[in-house]
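Quick one: co-fold with s-citryldethia Coenzyme A.
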Amino acid sequence: MAAEIQRGLEDVVALESRICFIDGQKGRLIYRGYDIRELAERSTFEEVAYLLWYGRLPTASQLDELTSRLVPLRELPPALAREIDELPLSAHPMDILRTAVSALALVEPEETRPGPTSIGGAQRLTAALPTILGRFHRRRNGGKPPEARPGLSAAAYLLYALLDREPTELEARALDVALILHADHELNASTFSARVTASTLSDLYSSITSAVGTLKGPLHGGANERVMELLAEIGNPERAEEVVTGKLSRHERIMGFGHRVYKVEDPRATILREWSRRVGEAKNELRYYELLRQVEAVVHREKGLYPNVDLYSGSMYTLLGIPHDLFTPIFAASRVVGWTAHVLEEYEDLRLIRPTAKYVGPTDLPYVPIADRR
Ligand code: SDX
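Sure, here it is.
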């Protein structure tokens, strides 16, 4: 009997994993057994990276060892730095990222063999992505490339690399929480594309290149950039109702809302809403936060939809001084940990991922010589 088609593979269970659990009905997100709310409150991005890669929370010495290994890996090989400096300044930073990940494999081929040694490549990419983004962004602003800055945490370094200034403690902690929240999310589209690539025994860098290209789409990681475009279109609070109901009446999607798995509020949205308010209060700029609260009320009333991770991240990044086209790259700088954890898990228990399609086209057509075709 022909299997029922699940468009978009909706609700299809494709594999077993020990990395991440999402309870879409209850709005719960778990990394390797730990609730995201507790990790966002008490952990750091480096500690969560260790947890996702190794499957357990690190001891103090294990965390120190990982951190001291990641810092020198922030440096780019000169050949890659030169290649990034040749790329057009008009390029979207996600395209820069995709190109640089591919190029890094050419310049450092030793860590591209599929298998457990790919943890080296995973850590290399996680440490280098902020430098790649910082080098490109500073160049388009006429600035100098970032230095490795051993004293800065991963979140503080990402802000320093992008903004060419030392972040405040609050700014660094706000981004650290955002990096924790974005680090993994089970078989989302970009992680799935990384696992499909790895399942052919292709290398880690090819798998991450697939994932970067997938995350770029506005229905996935690109939504946070478009939320800010919506806020710019609304302008002032009085127009929120009119703009949002107008879009909904035209069956347009409101970016930052809805989710394939969560049927209630995305727990990451809950945490980012609070951090967006805290940073807004500290910067005496609550305009975005208040506008988003209004948009939330209209979308929920009209469509019963809840905010997802992308609704508040962009407003917080804007308050941190980060330009819109770097929002999805920041998502990638965090999700690279989840992507690589899933690639390593695929290598451990590999099965070629290859679904089938229901063919609905014609069959047995006679071949007509070109001279006789009309
Ligand atoms: C991320 O998968 C992950 O885990 C992803 C992610 C991660 O961490 O990796 O969580 C990150 O990608 C979050 C999602 C970011 N994308 C957006 O915010 C874009 C806007 N959202 C939608 O495009 C949509 O909600 C999706 C793509 C996220 C989910 O879409 P589905 O599951 O395919 O749902 P659907 O398109 O079938 O919509 C069901 C109904 C439809 O109504 P009807 O046409 O049946 O009347 O809900 C409506 C949709 O029109 N709907 C929306 C909507 N999302 C769904 N209507 C208006 N605005 C929206 N955002």
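If it helps, The first strand starts at residue 20 and ends at 23.
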